[in-house]
Amino acid sequence: MTAHLKKVELHCHLEGAAPPALTLAQARKYNIDISAYLKDGAYVWHDFASFLECYDKISEVYKTDEDYALLTETYLAELAGIGTIYSELIVSPDHGKRIGLGADAYIEGVCEGIRRARAASGIEARLIVTGERHFGPASVIGAAEYAASARNPLITGFNLAGEERMGRVADYARAFDIARDAGLGLTIHAGEVCGAFSVADALDAVRPARIGHGVRAIEDADLVRRLADLGTVLEVCPGSNIALEVFPDFQSHPLRALKEAGVRVTISSDDPPFFHTSLEREYELASSVFGFSDAEIDAITRTGIEAAFVDEATRSELLARL
Ligand code: ADE
Ligand code: ZN
């Protein structure tokens, strides 16, 4: 049982955390047919590409700043309810633009949700703006420029997500220069759908402090040593990896092997209802399937706080709460 443990989450896509019941209510409110993407209370997809398509489609039923406030508050309240003290949410102001809401109103809605959740439970949260590879380098640079110029104290990181098989990290390096110059923390989805080369690519082209997933680094022993030597933190999402068939089962998942090789690992839920998981379940898996003791799980949570994209005063407060 991990119910008594404090929790931290560094890798969760906001729209990917949308509870199916809320998405259905939103679709009804706006009279949008999402029956191809949400059936019998579950999101419908069958591989990585169709997952990304489903994600983009269901995101379209969140239309206003109030919709985003409600979505954010709902997810953070769930996290707080299981003992989570800190959450980083991956957000896409570009998506706000695409649906006609606008990037500022999208972010303002999300920030309002954070304020409400913090007032209710004390949970701390920050935002990681993401570019999506499948919308191309220009859109990713646009996302970085938005994050850099927003001067929003809750926006503290920049990420690259989406279709990993599209382009190489170097194609998006300019976006990371912009984000780095603005003082944002950097993280990149790599080594999830693509192999170890994609993690090496991220280190060569950008050298982010963190890597989203990164688990397929296990295919290259030299790369695992490089991650350990650099102290790069992996945002590992085991339930997501199994749902997307990155590994056939939890027994073959490299979380424990990476940790034992000296790589700094954390645990997150990625897009929980899409992958029939939750942060609560990921912590349970760390205990029951990966066999980590409470002290080891606390150490993983501590790594999460150490790697969080927050100012040092907030980091100290979070460490004290742990
Ligand atoms: N966008 C949402 N979830 C993602 C994932 N697991 N990988 C890449 N892009 C994503
Ligand atoms: Zn992700």
TrEMBL record:
SUPFAM superfamilies tied to this protein: Metallo-dependent hydrolases
Q: Which UniProt keywords apply?
A: Hydrolase, Metal-binding, Nucleotide metabolism, Zinc
| Catalysed reaction, written as an equation | adenine + H2O + H(+) = hypoxanthine + NH4(+)
Annotated site (Important for catalytic activity): H213
Superkingdom of origin organism:
Bacteria
Tell me if Transmembrane is a UniProt keyword of this record.
no
- Active-site residues are E192 (proton donor)
- Which cofactors does this protein require? Zn(2+)
UniProt keyword annotation of Hydrolase present = yes
Q: Provide the GO biological process annotations.
A: adenine catabolic process; hypoxanthine salvage; nucleotide metabolic process
Q: Which InterPro entries match?
A: A_deaminase_dom (IPR001365), ADE (IPR028892), Ado/ade_deaminase (IPR006330), Metal_Hydrolase (IPR032466)
Residues given in the record as Zn(2+) binding sites? H11, H13, H189, D270
Gene Ontology terms, MF aspect: adenine deaminase activity; zinc ion binding
- What broad class of enzyme is this? hydrolase
| Sequence similarity | Belongs to the metallo-dependent hydrolases superfamily. Adenosine and AMP deaminases family. Adenine deaminase type 2 subfamily.
| Alphabetized HAMAP family for the sequence | Adenine_deaminase
UniProt function note: Catalyzes the hydrolytic deamination of adenine to hypoxanthine. Plays an important role in the purine salvage pathway and in nitrogen catabolism.
The name this protein carries in UniProt is Adenine deaminase
Naturally occurring in which organism (per UniProt): Rhizobium metallidurans
